[in-house]
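Entry for the shared binder. Reason: the reviewer on the internal report wants the predicted structure included alongside the sequence.
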Amino acid sequence: MKRKQHYFLIYFLLLLFIFLPVVVLSETAPPASPQNKTWKGSISNQKEEFIQVVETQEQWSELWMRAFAKPAPDVDFGKYAVACVFLGHSADWLYAIIFGQPFMRDNQLVIPFGLAEIILELSGPFKASGQYSMKVFEKKKNVKMIMEEDPQSHKGRK
């Protein structure tokens, strides 16, 4: 009888050690921060290049309808803005769009971004389809937000 109790105890402790970290981590993990929110893709209806900080719900909603023909996700534009890079349908290649760390310059918050060529082997000519990347950034009171392409970014782009 004692042998069965030992097996039960060992089985119980094993289960406890397996599931306890999951329970503890799920309860202590911080909620997802809006600042970490990004949207990326290689297909959109945004035909023209669009590189801009979107700071209002109206601009955000218009952009999503134009680019994706659907309602925009929620963003608290009282606290946040969204840096948007759409390469349009005339882009010469597929790029990784990377946002850098924002920095202050002349009372403006500069959001740097860069493009890195993605190496692909294609079976036919490349056709751009509206590649994009968007990232949420925290606003600073009375500070204009601008975007700036990193000078080390891909040189072959128009």
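Summary line for the report: The two ends are 80 Å apart (CA to CA).
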